[in-house]
Amino acid sequence: MEKALRFLTSGYDADIDQVINGALFTVNYSEMVIVKDIDFYSLCEHHLLPFFGKCHVAYIPSTRVIGLSKIPRLVEVFARRLQVQERLTNQIAETISEKIAPLGVAVVVEATHLCMSMRGVQKQNSFAVTSAMLGAFRNHSRTRMEFLELIKLRAAGGVSNATSAGLACVGDD
Ligand SMILES: [Zn+2]
Fold this sequence. Notes:
The protein is an alpha+beta fold.
């Protein structure tokens, strides 16, 4: 069990710069870059129960891009910690923003929380959606809509109708 927990929380020891490992490139490209359906597994910090699902990341480069294969690695670093879904979402967005100063970053996370399915409200099939929109994705609704269209959320009606992640595991004990 100790070994498992060390692995599941190994994201605390990861060095972000080492993870990205120099995979930052200067290019002349200013269209949206999207990496979608990144599987992740994390543990909620309130109950130490898993929450897991998919993460979608997009950004619009300014002068630099990040190696595409590094984005799932980045998600993994933040997922392998004790987390709340909102923080996980923000940390991914803010790190990308910090490292390559893009024109905008968008991160959407859809997750099933076992603390929701196994206990409490027992909504077996419900999942929570969180998003972080920075720069152009925050300021331009067309850019945001384009991204949301491209990732086509499982949630009927998109982000706004989904369960707030905050309800997933807080405030019921
Ligand atoms: Zn929980």
